[in-house]
């Protein structure tokens, strides 16, 4: 039953850093490498809607952050144009529906922490024109816009530029992503937000007290905006003991969040870091830490049917599982992406 359910459902992945892996290749290989390496995994995992975050590694910050941001955005356009029979880069809900109707994977561009932006909020319309439809303002540390959750001790809210960024994103129809944002920053966003807020890859703090996870209060605040919380698959955000980092533990987080804010506000944000690492790290130098972060079976998109199986074992109704797998994210994107205020 779970296999048929997974195939029938719209499966949305709200966070896969595969652009890092693709842009590690020469530009003339971008489209082909995506087709050879990543497209089969997405198809095997049943992915219908894929968010592509633009994440800038430390080696490019600060001087090269904007150049690398533009390079990764160009990569997304290039791989979409070179695989137009299989994927479509989408700017709004109509684009997504058209892609799904054609049997293509709908791709949506996101900025993760936006270091290329710095405090230049006036560049958001430019990035919007280039296709960006989701953005966050911080990663682990401090930016000109906000503090990441690694700086929670500072108790910082959004900066003045960060407040302007939130307002400009809402005007443009760019979804605000609170994943990685510090606790005080999340509270500030929830005070100011006039449109739905998204968490692209965050798990439940009630089940593991990690600063990257969201408290029940934060979860309720996101749901109150009409937003969605997409659950992170990384083991270190699911359980302290590596032996407990299982698909069933991931299901615990999904079910908890659904119980706190309702099944209509939950999605999936896997963050398949092991697959990206395998694509960008020479075999001689692989960081074994990544192996300990990964839930067995969920190293990459091919493991997504295991999540459906786990939710079926929990006895969740099929309709609820379909919402979690992607229905909620699809509805949010249909209503909000690219829709100007």
TrEMBL record:
InterPro entries: Metal_Hydrolase, Pept_M19. SUPFAM superfamilies: Metallo-dependent hydrolases (SSF51556). This is Dipeptidase. It comes from Streptomyces rhizosphaericus.
């Amino acid at each position: 039953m779970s296999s048929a359910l997974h195939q029938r459902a719209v499966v949305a992945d709200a966070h896969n850093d595969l652009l890092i892996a693709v842009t590690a290749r020469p530009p003339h290989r971008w489209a082909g490498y995506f087709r050879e390496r990543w497209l089969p995994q997405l198809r095997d995992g049943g992915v219908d809607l894929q968010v592509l975050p633009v994440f800038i590694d430390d080696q490019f910050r600060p001087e090269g952050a904007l150049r690398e941001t533009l390079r990764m955005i160009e990569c997304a356009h290039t791989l979409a144009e070179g695989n137009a029979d299989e994927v479509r880069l989408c700017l709004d809900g109509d684009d997504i529906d058209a892609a799904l109707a054609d049997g293509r994977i709908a791709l949506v561009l996101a900025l993760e922490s936006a270091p290329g932006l710095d405090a230049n909020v006036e560049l958001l319309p430019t990035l919007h024109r280039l296709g960006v439809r989701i953005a966050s303002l911080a990663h682990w540390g401090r930016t000109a816009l906000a503090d990441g959750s690694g700086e929670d001790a500072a108790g910082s809210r959004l900066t003045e530029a960060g407040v302007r960024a939130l307002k400009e994103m809402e005007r443009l129809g760019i979804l605000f992503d609170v994943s990685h944002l510090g606790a005080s920053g999340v509270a500030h966003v929830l005070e100011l937000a006039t449109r739905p807020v998204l968490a692209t890859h965050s798990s439940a703090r009630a089940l593991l007290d990690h600063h990257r996870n969201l408290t029940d209060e934060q979860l309720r605040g996101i749901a109150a905006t009409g937003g969605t919380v997409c659950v992170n698959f990384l083991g270190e955000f699911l359980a302290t003991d590596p032996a407990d980092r299982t698909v069933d533990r991931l299901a615990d987080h999904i079910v908890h969040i659904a119980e706190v804010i309702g099944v209509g506000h939950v999605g999936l944000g896997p963050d398949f870091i092991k697959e990206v690492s395998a694509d960008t790290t020479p075999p001689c130098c692989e960081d074994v830490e990544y192996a300990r972060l990964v839930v067995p079976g969920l190293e990459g998109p091919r493991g997504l049917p295991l999540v459906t199986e786990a939710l079926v074992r929990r006895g969740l109704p099929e309709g609820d599982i379909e919402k979690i797998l992607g229905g909620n994210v699809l509805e949010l994107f249909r209503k909000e992406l690219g829709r100007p205020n």
